[in-house]
Amino acid sequence: MRSGFAIFDHAQFRHYAKQITDMSVEARERRQPWILLSAPLGAVTLLLLVPLVFIVIYSFWLRSAVGPDIAGFHPDNWQRALTDPFYRYILFNTLKIAAITTFFCALLGYPAAYFITRSSGNKLILLLLLMLPFWISYIIRTMSWINILGSSGALNTLLLSTGVISSPIQMLYNEATVILGLVHFLLPFMVLNIYVSLDGIDTNLEDAATSLGATRWQSFLQVTLPLSLPGLAAGGLLCFVLGAGTYITPLILGGPRDAMFANLVFEAIITQLNWPMGSALSLLLLLVLGALVAVYNRFLGMSQLTKGLG
Amino acid sequence: MDNTKRYERLLERYRNGDLDRRSFLGLIGAAGVAYGVQTPFARMAFAQDVTQVRFDGWGGVVSEAFRRHAFDPYTAATGINVVDGTFSGGDEYLAQVRSSQEGEYNIAHLSGVFDYARYVNFGLDVALNIENIPNMELVMDALTNAFRGITPDHLSAVPYNYGTTGLAYNRAYISDEEIREKGASILIDPEYQGKIGGWSDWRTRLWYAALQTGQSPNDIQDMEAAWDAIRAHRDLALKYWGSGAELMSLLAEEEIYVTEGWSGRIAALQEQGHDIGYYDAPNSFGWQECLFVIKGSPVEACEELLNFMLAPETSIAVAEGQNYPPALDGSKVDLGSKIPTLPAYDPSGTLEALTFADPVYWNGNEAEWSETFARVQRGF
Could you state, in order of their start, the residue ranges of all structural domains in chain B? Predict the structure, then answer.
């Protein structure tokens, strides 16, 4: 009697063995990215998604007058965050300040990036100088404006000593100084993004435009600027999102009325100990900025952003 | 009773004939089995022996004084290390404590009786055995009674120092006579528009609004008038300051000429040579600070440390460092030469000259008023 194993001849055995080997290679190849991604995915899950879930849950709790928060599903915080004109006003003001900051960053950042791209030889030094402010604490950089613009700061002292003014000018603690502080903080992000974009443009294109009769200004406007727009947009998005999420700058350089949405989140959580409302407000800001990023991604894609960050 | 004592008693009963040999050996055997079974778990219990106590305070000279006069001698006497942490604000610290595990934070240098009440409301208090803190005998009763009003059957903190939030003004621009004449209303005087400051703390803003509208800070009847006073101050003020360092900087740099300020910080400015005056208007904001033991802490170890911290040499050194009078009763302890000169110092030991915030009143309205202030501050 022949055993069941003997029904396969050698050729069939090799065929099945190859299939199994091929499958295992395919399966391994399929698994490999997940194995490599497991650590970052784990980190993102633990450090971002899980806390986010906690914040979502918290946003539906209620603060009690004294003592612990009241757990449950209460839409009250969301209702207030979405319908209260106070939160709407601060949110629009935040978006306005972020937009003005982004505009000034673009205005100042483009010429700087263009200069760095076109400079020959000292490009690395210029890039290093651009990165230099990142080595100093953001808070210290922001506070430095007090020593420059304060009543007894460098600028007032200079103007007084040269006789231009007879008494110090009040320059600090208003919305303009908040925007100034934000531009100071965010400008390098804009310059880097535009630089990456400009650096990737083939200079022969400008030469070609010039050889076809375009002036240097025309070749810039019709060739260089359109090609660098993705970098400008990426820098704009970064500046806008980072600017809209800040609370330190208005705290240091703002007056009594000056506040951005993140200040409300800080106050709700830290000063008022109203974690549920603070959670709802922080999620609202996240949703608004997330929507902006989604719109950007729909029309320009995220690849330009990662180039700039890289 | 320790195990050795238990065995000795058992042996004594056996020798006296109260216990037969079989029962004696049975109990010894059972004790042996019980010890063998619990030994692996006992290691974990040993790991919980008190090896350190965490103290959180305001940092700077206060921390240095605590380290030199209290923490190091305490460690030498007990073998328990003191981990010294700092925080920049009481609200921020409470948020940290609430999100921590029990026992992570032990003793905190907290502000105000309302902070004591808040911690009690969150169930973060413990019951201290005052007999383990002999130096409490030297503390003013007026300060301790404020805490007993909140927890009549126990104390979770010991008073440590007190001060006021009074009017600070630049003498180059505002005379002593003017500040006495105008009092708290100088903070809403249009003459000083753009040169007025204020603490971004809702309690202080409302307290001064009550004074400006002629009301009792502990019983504000016309809230709308008080909010209007805050709006008037907001529109005249250059800046709301958020820390003692910022307060000192704004006054020293002459960015502002007048603000309410913390007595100790103004004394520090005066020590530095700045011509800054300090005036406690009638019903000026008095407050006290305490050393609060947080739930989950090793209470006995904390009590011993509190006793070290309340010792006169430590209390006086800290008080001289931070320019706030200590909680020690001047009639029972010689406080030296500097402390009687500090702003807010009360030689009577009764503190009747100071007005403290009623914790029940202020904490009961905290939720509503802190949110309303956030709106009023932004123009609403």
Answer: 3-47, 52-162+287-351, 163-286+361-377
Whether A170 and chain B come into contact, CB under 8 Å, resolves to yes
Type of residue at A278? G
Higher-pLDDT residue of A94 and A203 is A94
> Would you say the CATH fold of B163-286+361-377 matches that of B52-162+287-351?
yes
Per CB-CB distance under 8 Å, the chain A contacts of B234 are: 256-257
CB of B249 within 8 Å of a chain A CB? The answer is yes
Pairing mode, strands B196-199 and B237-241: parallel
8 Å CB contact between B80 and B74: yes
Distance CA B231, CA B119 (A): 31
List of chain B residues with pLDDT < 70: 1-19, 21-22, 24-25, 27-48
* Cβ atoms B158, B329 nearer than 8 A: no
Q: How does pLDDT run across B331-370, given as a tens digit for each residue?
A: 899 999 999 999 889 888 888 888 999 988 998 898 899 9
Give tens-digit pLDDT for A61-118: 998 766 678 999 999 999 999 999 999 999 999 999 999 999 999 999 999 999 999 9
* Token duo for residue A107: 């205005």
Please state, in angstroms and rounded to a whole number, the distance separating the CA atoms of residues A236 and A194.
Answer: 10
Could you please state the CATH topology (level 3) that the domain comprising B163-286+361-377 is classified under: D-Maltodextrin-Binding Protein; domain 2 (3.40.190)
Distance CA B90, CA B116 (A): 11
DSSP E strands, B235-360: 237-241, 258-262, 276-279, 285-293, 355-356
Per-residue model confidence as pLDDT tens digits over A211-250: 999 999 999 999 999 999 999 999 999 999 999 999 999 9
Smallest Cα–Cα separation from B294: which of B148, B145, B151, B128?
B128
- Judging by DSSP bridges, how do beta strands B52-57 and B107-111 pair with one another? parallel
- The CA distance from B150 to B148, in Å, is 5
Q: Is B95 on the interface with A (CB under 8 A)?
A: yes
Domain B52-162+287-351, what architecture?
A: 3-Layer(aba) Sandwich (3.40)
Distance CA B199, CA B197 (A): 7
The amino acid sitting at B183 is G
User: Which domains are assigned to chain A?
Assistant: 1-59 (no CATH), 85-309 (1.10.3720.10)
Q: Which residues are paired to B287 by β-bridges?
A: B163
Distance from CA of B240 to the nearest CA of A (A): 5
B197: chain A residues, CB-CB within 8 Å: none
In whole angstroms, what is the distance from residue B344 CA to residue B166 CA?
9
Q: What is the Cα–Cα distance from B145 to B158, expressed in whole angstroms?
A: 11
CB-CB under 8 Å, A151 with B237: no
- Residue B326 DSSP label: B
Asked whether this complex has an ipTM greater than 0.85, the answer is no
The distance between the two most distant Cα atoms of chain A, rounded to a whole number of Å, is 118
**CB–CB of B118 and A66 under 8 A?**
yes
How far is the C-alpha of B353 from the C-alpha of A111, rounded, in Å?
65
